[in-house]
Amino acid sequence: MLAVAFAGVSSAQAPGLYCIDAKASHIEIRVFRSGFLSAFGDNHVIALNHFSGTAKSIGKTWEVDVVGETASLEVKDPKSAASTRAEVQSTMVGPTQLDVTRYPKIEVRASSLVPGPTSQSWRMIADVTLHGVTRRVEFPLAWSQDGNVLRVQGKKKLLLRDFKIEPISKGFGAVQVRNDFDLIYDIVLRRSS
Question: What is the pTM (predicted TM-score) of this model?
């Protein structure tokens, strides 16, 4: 769940209730390989397929609720064989990595949203809960609005070990997953009448 009080946000956004359009929105994770035999490993592209939420604007404050389902993370890796994708998928959701049975939700709770470096940007300070661990993270947000549609986009680098997830290593570290990964988000919210 993402519960946000957005203070000092531009008055360009019309007040009211905005619902995330999950079909028009996209959340992607990019995981990278390292090690001296990393040429024999793969980078991974992972999509978060199920997430939902609302954003409610009242004056200069916002309240937002968002939740993602960990089990809906899907390894896309377009250049990999289906069997390789299935193996990576099984490891990713299994007990040694995300442990989706024990930790079924990804949650974010923002503590502030402040103007960013441009008139069309925000910086959101949020508590992110993943794998049972909560960390404070600053997210860059670029926003645009077209009538009743508010769009928020950005990219943030996070660390697996910050959430007590140990990067996978094979061949005594010859091929391993890097500790850092990219979270890329493109969220479309539609104002409810």
Answer: 0.84
Q: Please, what sign has the CA dihedral across residues 94, 46, 137, 128?
A: negative
Domain contains 6: no
Domain hosting 42: range is 16-191
Length of the chain: 193
162 close to 136: Cβ distance less than 8 angstroms? no
The average confidence (pLDDT) of the chain is: 83
Is residue 11 assigned to a domain?
no
Q: Residue 11 to residues 7, 19, 94: CA-CA distances in angstroms?
A: 11, 19, 44
Rounded alpha-carbon distances, angstroms, from residue 137 to 77, 90, 108, 110: 27, 28, 9, 9
25's tokens: 């929105």
Can you tell me which residue has the tokens 């919210």?
189
Q: Are strands 175-191 and 149-159 parallel, antiparallel or unpaired?
A: antiparallel
> Which has the closest alpha carbon to 79: 92, 88, 71?
88
